[in-house]
């Protein structure tokens, strides 16, 4: 259990720090904008921007600690999942990308874009379409790697 | 690659979990090694050889 300490510490600092950052940021934005130090929008941009970047740096840190703790077979499973699962997922995203430029498909794909259909919704949907197949592919290949090696 | 890990472990009456602890890997990794579905890295192969006090080539074969 002790070997997991660096991972737990990184996770606690990342999520605890993220929570604290958003909490204190909210107070500063609320107080500062009421006092007229800065506009709510500017302060909100800074706080959410810093929060998002800090959280992702923390996620990388947790991942690095995790990779250091696990053994070589577990690392190999992740490397295989990263390459084959990630690449397979990217191919799925590639199909959607090509179809979204083809006339009959564009309208069908556009139906899956949520809410107002504003440019930012399309951007978010595009990012999700890129990430989701890669994550699904990663998970499937990772599970396959271990299942294939668990059979006696 | 074939190996004699299971036999060597049985000779010492070790469970997979005990061997895993000696090697500093998970039990799942020991299972994957024993079934020949995962080939160890050179450092791990040397560690296995050291623990069983045998040369690598007497434990692993093509």
Descriptive labels:
heterodimer, A: 152 residues, B: 62 residues, mainly alpha, two-stranded antiparallel sheet, 2 strands, 61% helix, 6% strand
Give a written overview of the molecule.
The complex is a heterodimer of chains A (152) and B (62). With 152 residues, chain A is mainly alpha-helical. Chain A has helices at residues 5-34, 40-69, 72-99, 103-110, 119-150. The longest helix of chain A has 32 residues, at 119-150. Chain B has a two-stranded antiparallel ribbon with strand order 1-2. In chain B, helix 2 (16-23) packs across helix 3. Chain B is globular and about 25 Å long. The chains are: A mainly alpha (152), B mainly alpha (62). At the A-B interface, helix 3 and helix 5 of A face helix 3 of B.
Pair of chains with the largest interface and how many residues each contributes:
A-B, 12 and 14 residues
Low-confidence residue ranges of chain A = none
Number of domains of chain B: 1
Biggest sheet details of chain B: 2 strands, antiparallel
User: Mean of the pLDDT scores of chain B?
Assistant: 94
Question: If helices are DSSP runs of H or I spanning 4 or more residues, what is the number of helices of chain B?
Answer: 5
Question: What gyration radius of chain B follows from the Cα positions, in whole Å?
Answer: 10 Å
Outline of chain B: globular
Note the beta-strand portion of chain B.
Answer: 5-15%
Order of helices and strands of chain A: HHHHH
Give the low-confidence spans of chain B: none
Task: Estimate the strand proportion of chain A.
Answer: under 5%
Global morphology of chain A: flat
- Give the terminus-to-terminus CA distance of chain A: 27 Å
Overall residue-averaged pLDDT value of chain A: 90
Write the layout of secondary structure elements.
The complex is a heterodimer of chains A (152) and B (62).
Chain A: H1 5-34, H2 40-69, H3 72-99, H4 103-110, H5 119-150
Chain B: E1 2-3, H1 5-11, H2 16-23, H3 27-34, H4 42-52, H5 56-59, E2 60-61
Antiparallel strand pairs in B: 1-2
